[in-house]
Amino acid sequence: MSEVWVCQFRSCSRDGAEMVSAALQESAPPHIQVVPTGCLGLCGSGPIVVVTEDDCFYWRMTPAKSHRMAQEHLVGRSPVTEYLHPRLHPPGP
Ligand code: FES
Hints:
By secondary structure, this protein is an alpha+beta fold. Helix content is 31%, strand content 19%. It has 3 helices and 4 strands. A 4-stranded mixed beta sheet has the order 2-1-3-4, covered by helices on one side. A hairpin with a 4-residue loop joins strand 3 (49-51) and strand 4 (56-58). The chain binds FE2/S2 (inorganic) cluster. The site of FE2/S2 (inorganic) cluster has 12 residues, from helix 1.
């Protein structure tokens, strides 16, 4: 089973990680498990969400962004590039 990690540690939690987690639980397809985690090392740019299967790190997530990401990435298999963390996923040339 694939997993989506949602950091629930300090700064991500303060920035709404619990609502992000709830949105993903609601819209992720059944074969994807949404897993709360501790700090993922990217504090201050959260809430951080990781699609483990594709090694994609999303930053500054909100419930609305989470619903879109679930549809396009988790269901449609196409990452939402504008939501990816720019330090880990630098924009192409
Ligand atoms: S608190 Fe979420 S990445 Fe550190």
